[in-house]
Amino acid sequence: MPIDTVMQTRGAGLTGLTAAALKLILFGGKGGVGKTTCASSAGLYLAKEGFRVLVISTDPAHSLSDSLAQKFGAEIQEVKGIKNLSVLEVNAQKALSRFKACNEEQIKKILNTSTYLDQQDIDSLFTLPIPGIDELMGFKTIVDLIDEGGFDKYIVDTAPTGHALRLLTLPGLLDEWIKVMGKMRWKYRYMVETFSGRYKEDEGDDFLLIMKKMIKRIESLLKDQNRCEFIAVTIPEDMAISETERLVSELQSYGIKVKQLVVNNVLESGDCGFCRERGRAQQDYLKQIKNRFSALQTVIIPLWPREVKGIVPLNNLKKRLFL
Ligand SMILES: Nc1ncnc2c1ncn2[C@@H]1O[C@H](COP(=O)(O)OP(=O)(O)O)[C@@H](O)[C@H]1O
Ligand SMILES: [Mg+2]
Questions:
Q1: Atom of ligand 1 nearest to the CA of 317
Q2: How far is ligand 1, taken at its centre, from the CA of residue 244, in Å?
Q3: How high does pLDDT run on average in the chain?
Q4: Which option is the CATH number for 3-61+71-99+125-321: 3.20.20.150, 3.40.50.1980, 3.40.50.300, 3.40.50.170?
Q5: Using N-to-C axis directions, what is the helix angle for 238-254 and 273-292, rounded to 10°?
Q6: DSSP 51
Q7: Which atom of ligand 1 is nearest to the CA of 59?
Q8: Fewer CB within 10 Å of terminal CB in the chain, N or C?
Q9: Residue among 41, 56, 54, 247 nearest 158 (CA)
Q10: pLDDT of residue 183
Q11: Sequence spans of domains, the chain
Q12: Phi, psi dihedrals of residue 172, rounded to the nearest 5°
């Protein structure tokens, strides 16, 4: 049976990405399904449409350089030969180090004045990793860039599912952390007021307020359907489908609605026994995808005989991603 009869959606491409309000487009999914390929390809498409585009990788295993066949790094760099397209590989660890260096005094001050810890405890608390904080700082870099407004579209090639989810749900977690810190501060403030009659807000209070505002900014951007879209990428295989289902439902519960799904690596032809067998297995999975993701607009991308690396192959894939 030809694939078209299973997926009525063949013929549809990704839509809505040119909407003026849409700033942030994230591609997410299991490792190896084609997130980087889709992000690069979407970058080429939107740049060609006349938008100033920045493709950003938050995957610690950056592969935009491989995909676009040009070396990129931690500074924004234009893609050679392509007008309006630039790339940035965010180094979350570096962003965190910068953040710590800038805010060390304030954080220690909060710990110092708000708890009964001695200096050694405070020093070790400060160096203790808060899970996901490095990625959050990476995300802060993105939000700052969007605020600066140097580009019209920011496309994010995210790390595989677990990482990406942790990043997206982190603002909520960190908010809790700030609340606890705030409570400690409040106790301290109460004591100071009781004994000295007045309390003057210091850098510790400023810091908590700045953090709180940053988290709100990130959260409201991610949950704003007009400004942000998360596109799931999967392949017609059991584990990838299950992981995509979890990803979509977790995002949903966090308030991020996924509307479009790219199904990559779909076999379209092939007469050998191996291809027929693979094709049959894929047909079953494509049916499953149709049932399990019935609310999503699905875009089918064929499996190319070779890796999709470099501008020309990406431009070919682009013709299927955007019709
Ligand atoms: N439709 C396709 N046909 C053939 N090869 C593909 C296709 N999509 C992606 N690839 C290749 O598969 C590999 C993994 O893709 P990539 O985009 O890096 O995945 P991810 O970012 O999700 O880990 C890359 O080598 C890429 O060139
Ligand atoms: Mg990748």
A1: 1
A2: 16
A3: 85
A4: 3.40.50.300
A5: 20
A6: -
A7: 21
A8: N
A9: 56
A10: 75
A11: 3-61+71-99+125-321
A12: -65, -45
